[in-house]
Amino acid sequence: MPALKLYFQPKPILTGERSRVTKILVVDDETALCEMIHIFLSRCGYEVLKASSGDEALQKVKDDEPSLVLLDIKMPGLDGLETLRRIKQKGNSTTVIMLTAVADKNVKQKASDLGADDYIIKPVDLRDLQQSVQDAINRIAGQHRFPLKEEKL
Predict the structure, then answer these.
(1) What residue segments make up the domains of the chain, in order of their start?
(2) pLDDT tens-digit series, residues 88-135
(3) pLDDT for 10 beyond 60
(4) At what angle do helices 54-64 and 80-89 cross, to 10 degrees?
(5) CATH architecture of the domain with residue range 20-142
(6) Going along 15-147, which residue ranges are E strands?
(7) Rounded to the nearest 10 degrees, what angle do helices 126-143 and 31-43 cross at?
(8) CB 100, CB 79: distance < 8 Å
(9) Chain segment 39-96, per-residue pLDDT in tens
(10) CB-based contacts of 51-59 (< 8 A; 24+ apart in sequence)
(11) Distance (Å, rounded) from C-alpha 59 to C-alpha 132?
């Protein structure tokens, strides 16, 4: 496989309390795209897992408990929308960003109704992906804040 050429240096986007939110699962049956995203997000400082099918993704969500899933819609077998539905059906609070070549408003609305947090159209612009991941990490970090202990004077 040829080396991935990045046109800009990804900046690490994990600092402070956000560094605890590091595991991302990339689900896509397009091996080259999955690998490119894996390399890019790894360089950003995340622990990145890969899956090539909906069934494999469900197993990894169960076993590895990623904080964020990047999920393709069009895949053989269990498609992304059904995978999303099953992830959310179990009361799982995992954040899901859909990655797809399908620029259909109805599909986007269905993904949103099923609990998708964002929707990125392929081909993936790495700057857009980085911003979407950053926004998701910020939301996740906000959900995991602990109240400050009251100090006694």
Answers:
(1) 20-142
(2) 997 778 999 999 898 899 999 999 999 999 999 999 999 999 999 999
(3) no
(4) 30
(5) 3-Layer(aba) Sandwich (3.40)
(6) 23-27, 47-51, 68-72, 95-100, 118-121
(7) 60
(8) no
(9) 999 988 899 999 999 999 999 999 999 999 999 999 999 999 999 999 999 777 899 9
(10) 51/25, 51/26, 51/27, 52/27, 52/28, 53/27, 53/29, 53/77, 53/78, 54/27, 54/78, 54/79, 54/80, 54/82, 54/83, 54/86, 56/27, 57/25, 57/27, 57/83, 57/87, 58/83, 58/86, 58/87
(11) 24
Asked if residue 41 lies in contact with residue 48, where contact means CB atoms within 8 angstroms, the answer is yes
As a dihedral over the C-alpha atoms of residue 14, residue 132, residue 24, residue 114, rounded to 10 degrees, the angle is: 140
In single-letter form, the type of residue at position 72 comes to D
Amino acid at 40: F
Report, as an integer, the average pLDDT of 132-145.
80
Cβ atoms within 10 Å of 16's Cβ, excluding its own: 7
What pLDDT, on the 0 to 100 scale, is given for residue 151? 39
The token duo for 115 is: 């609990």
Q: What is the pLDDT of residues 15-33, one digit of tens each?
A: 454 445 479 999 999 999 9
The identity of residue 13, as a single letter, is I
